[in-house]
Amino acid sequence: xxxxxxxxxxxxxxxxxxxxxxxxxxxxxxxxxxxxxxxxxxxxxxxxxxxxxxxxxxxxxxxxxxxxxxxxxxxxxxxxxxxxxxxxxxxxxxxxxxxxxxxxxxxxxxxxxxxxxxxxxxxxxxxxxxxxxxxxxxxxxxxxxxxxxxxxxxxxxxxxxxxxxxxxxxxxxxxxxxxxxxxxxxxxxxxxxxxxxxxxxxxxxxxxxxxxxxxxxxx
Length: 219
Description:
By secondary structure, the protein is mainly α. It has eight helices and four strands; from the N terminus they run βαβαββαααααα.
């Protein structure tokens, strides 16, 4: 099984950590959708990260769909709750994941606007709107974690805890002026605890594209 994509993508990193939490061995090929576009396209013509090449050669994409497949493969879910009794807990998890993924989307939009579009073509009002949406998602996420703290250990970490931790780190490394820890203290503290876990430490966000090595095999 091969995971294709750069770990500075929150979607790729989310998938890589889920693979490790579920105990599924995999190889990682750190290909960029930009600098190694042609090589990536030979694996998946859509060039979407993450891409997962299954053991039988089937190519999957989109982190949520890949994780759903991985949970089925492992026979274990990273989602909390089950049945009517667990509905409230599951609903909270879905809200956390939704907020985290919304923030990721807005951060990506900011990065692409600033890095890929010429300065004279950038639209300041649109950037301001996207930044407000990102901040709204992060502060709402922080409030959810403050009300209902998330597990931050390998045995009980859920998709919600994983997604929340990843978006905060992604924001820190990608924005020139990241949101301060004091603005989202519960979220920042949760992310710091998760980043100390082996599954996070072995998937560093400060990865560079390397097409000469096949990647690594997760423990």
